[in-house]
């Protein structure tokens, strides 16, 4: 048995050569001779990243100020994880006695003097209005006081920032806590947003517990408007459980 004599092998070869030329292949052989029958050389061993010899210690509540005023001052001190980051530190805003606290991940790139003062903030204000409140009535804070370079919480300081955020919630002790975004959900509940949404959580602190709802960050809703009905359901659940 031989090759199929009805196939135009020359035409097929010419077609392959033409495709390679279009793909940018400009030579058919290497500059140096190659032994095509030689066994392939084993790949070089992967370089191992050196293990950290200085583990990052998680801050304990006793190491953080016990009053809100002192805590907010300390939050912009050299003792916090973001101290060496570039950029401006954004302080929390709103009354210390707020019944509703809102926690986001970090300042927005286009924030002015306060958190959520850009386009995402305008949507945030409309979300608050939909549940019958205003920015002036809520305590608004972020997990990161400064914006990380890539806009994401650094994993090497995630546990420290989570401990600080949890302590902050405990100082306010609000009746309700609205957590916006995945990083904020991980900081407060140690759970990613998709798994945390859709149910009420009880966040325990030294003076009691706070009913907590996780939802989408306004920046995500700007990018994915189709998620707004889901966010509205989250807000409705927050209001239904205002006494939780």
From TrEMBL:
<dbReference type="InterPro" id="IPR051536">
    <property type="entry name" value="UDG_Type-4/5"/>
</dbReference>
<keyword id="KW-0411">Iron-sulfur</keyword>
<dbReference type="GO" id="GO:0051539">
    <property type="term" value="F:4 iron, 4 sulfur cluster binding"/>
</dbReference>
<dbReference type="InterPro" id="IPR005122">
    <property type="entry name" value="Uracil-DNA_glycosylase-like"/>
</dbReference>
<keyword id="KW-0234">DNA repair</keyword>
<feature type="domain" description="Uracil-DNA glycosylase-like">
    <location>
        <begin position="91"/>
        <end position="236"/>
    </location>
</feature>
<dbReference type="GO" id="GO:0046872">
    <property type="term" value="F:metal ion binding"/>
</dbReference>
<keyword id="KW-0227">DNA damage</keyword>
<dbReference type="Pfam" id="PF03167">
    <property type="entry name" value="UDG"/>
</dbReference>
<dbReference type="InterPro" id="IPR036895">
    <property type="entry name" value="Uracil-DNA_glycosylase-like_sf"/>
</dbReference>
<keyword id="KW-0408">Iron</keyword>
<protein>
    <submittedName>
        <fullName>Uracil-DNA glycosylase</fullName>
    </submittedName>
</protein>
<dbReference type="GO" id="GO:0097506">
    <property type="term" value="F:deaminated base DNA N-glycosylase activity"/>
</dbReference>
<dbReference type="GO" id="GO:0006281">
    <property type="term" value="P:DNA repair"/>
</dbReference>
<keyword id="KW-0479">Metal-binding</keyword>
<keyword id="KW-0378">Hydrolase</keyword>
<keyword id="KW-0004">4Fe-4S</keyword>
């Amino acid at each position: 048995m031989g090759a199929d004599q009805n196939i135009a092998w020359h035409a097929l070869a010419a077609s392959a050569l033409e495709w390679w030329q279009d793909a940018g292949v400009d030579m058919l052989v290497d500059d140096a001779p190659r032994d095509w029958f030689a066994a392939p050389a084993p790949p070089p061993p992967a370089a191992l990243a050196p293990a950290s010899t200085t583990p990052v210690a998680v801050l304990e509540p006793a190491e953080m100020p016990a009053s809100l005023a002192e805590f907010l001052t300390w939050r912009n001190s050299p003792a916090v994880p973001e101290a060496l980051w570039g950029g401006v530190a954004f302080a929390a805003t709103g009354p210390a006695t707020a019944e509703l606290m809102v926690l986001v991940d970090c300042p927005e790139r286009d924030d002015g003097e306060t958190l959520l003062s850009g386009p995402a903030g305008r949507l945030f204000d409309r979300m608050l209005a939909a549940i019958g409140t205003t920015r002036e009535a809520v305590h608004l804070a972020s997990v990161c006081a400064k914006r990380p370079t890539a806009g994401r919480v650094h994993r090497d300081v995630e546990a420290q920032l989570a401990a600080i955020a949890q302590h902050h919630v405990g100082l306010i002790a609000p009746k309700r806590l609205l957590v916006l975004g995945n990083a904020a959900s991980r900081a407060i509940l140690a759970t990613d947003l998709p798994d945390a949404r859709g149910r009420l959580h009880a966040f325990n602190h030294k003076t009691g517990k706070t009913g907590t709802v996780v939802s989408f960050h306004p920046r995500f809703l700007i990018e994915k408007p189709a998620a707004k009905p889901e966010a509205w359901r989250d807000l409705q659940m927050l209001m239904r459980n205002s006494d939780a």
